[in-house]
């Protein structure tokens, strides 16, 4: 989990059955290094005790507006001033209504009124209460005042109704917090397209040709770019990975599909990172029926797929930054430098499949980042760390490129 060291997160827990889920949220944030302060409404204490949050966060959990926990401070003002973010979850219809209309009649609503930081509101209630026009209007008012409303999940509710109104799982709530706090927004306003995973080329309705790419490197880059505030499109071959939150994922199967997807998004892309392992060949034809076995050997005739980066080199517009990947098993530096030139790239990330800890299907990688100015060899790292280093270097060069173009 990303580091939240130095961040102060305030959790506002209201009186809904889902209040128990907030123990997991508090625990995950505390483990990520954040200072977590929990404020509960009186009603919330019917569902989960303040002691649970105190034990998890190592901080007093506050219910009473006139608490004497911090005798030298005006507690509600000091909490409001020091919080980097407030998540109200589960947010009941009653608390949402109070927040929308500036009513501050308990500690939670008072702190929210006094705070200037980003507020995330996760409504959780019965479907009829959620869909009632007054709740919908109140949510719109909160949005107008700058709060981010986290869409409730659908399913079986505590009241046995089935519908919208469930509090999303802790992982989803934490994704929202991470997006706000985990990184400086160094890529805000930048459109980043990433390709990831393998492609798959059918032979018949049963069989296909592919490679061992798991997509982990490309997905890690997509996540890192999203955390840095970029608008991210992830063009993904078939992989067994969870989607990256807040990233637009376009699923593709073949090299041709990937080519079409890249062609469509390239004009509106600022930075293109091609981490996908694209098939260079496909069967010259796809049999309509399963190919039956016969006596003797069988041969498959293959034809070349389009080189997507080759097309990008011919069609990219000025100012775009293009980074390729190069997977080799021998002569890594020479082959990768040749690809940098041939494909007119700004950068290429080279890795040697024969090096321990590098390549497909593992959580680590050993890469060398090559540009026209030279090469930077990185040690064995987790793929999310490689993604961070890679984006640091891209950001720096993308800026230099932009500055140079502005001078012309
Ligand atoms: N690539 C591409 N289109 C292809 C094949 C590869 O855009 N049809 C991209 C990959 O996404 C990667 C880069 O080209 O960013 C290098 O891929 P790689 O397979 O290492 O190199 P190739 O150019 O295909 O050369 P070779 O297979 O001969 O090593």
- How many extended strands? 21
Give the radius of gyration: 26 Å
Structural class: alpha/beta
Give the termini distance in whole angstroms: 43 Å
Report the uncertain regions.
none
Report mean pLDDT, rounded to a whole number.
94
Biggest beta sheet summary: 8 strands, mixed
Strands of the widest sheet, in order across it, are: 12-11-8-13-16-17-19-20
Name the hetero compounds present: cytidine-5'-triphosphate
Strand content: 15-25%
Indicate the percent of residues in helices. Answer: 25-40%
Q: Provide a count of the helices.
A: 13
Looking at the structure, what is the overall shape? elongated
Please explain how this structure is put together.
The protein is α/β, with parallel strands linked by helices. Helix content is 34%, strand content 23%. It is built from 13 helices and 21 strands. The chain has helices at residues 21-31, 50-57, 75-82, 93-100, 107-114, 127-131, 133-144, 170-181, 216-227, 255-265, 308-315, 332-342, 383-407, and strands at 8-13, 35-40, 85-91, 118-123, 148-149, 153-156, 162-166, 191-196, 201-202, 208-209, 231-236, 248-251, 271-274, 281-283, 302-304, 321-328, 347-352, 364-365, 367-371, 374-377, 381-382. An eight-stranded mixed β-sheet has the order 12-11-8-13-16-17-19-20, with helices on both faces. Strands 2-1-3-4-5 form a five-stranded parallel β-sheet, with helices on both faces. Strands 6-7 form a two-stranded antiparallel sheet. Residues 195, 255, 274, 276, 278, 280, 305, 307-309, 324-327, 339 line the site of cytidine-5'-triphosphate.
